Fold:
Amino acid sequence: MADASFKQEFLETHNAYRAKHGAQPLTYNSELNAAAQKWADHLLQMGSLGHSNTKDGENVYNMWSSAPLKLTGKEAVESWYNEIKDYNWGRPGFSGSTGHFTQVVWKESTELGVGLATDGNKVFVVGQYRPAGNMNMPGYFEKNVLPQA
Structure:
């Protein structure tokens, strides 16, 4: 389960990146936190990465090591945001290689939930977003995924 410092860093990292793209800060939603935690626990139990069937937006992350892991709230968000390097600003839209990034900065998303599950060597992080981002309708990416200011 994500401790207070992990949760704070996770939220602050999201909001720092969102500010660069003209998106308002996210706030935590206890319902999303509970759902994200439940899914993170499930992923750890299964031992593999995958998305839940939520109607909310969702980013998933995992890492593993033979040495004990201590993941920070910043690391998962940075890995998602770093997909910006592959985003095609000339052809805005959804891509499997940039969907984590676009969800992080999606302007219409206002609420966030986070879950973390670990056995010490494997860690799974789930971020859930409401309203969901990555809506692939005409004009949605142009108005929700803005270039850095």
Q: What stands out?
A: The longest helix spans residues 4-20. The mean pLDDT is 96. DSSP finds five helices and four strands in the chain.
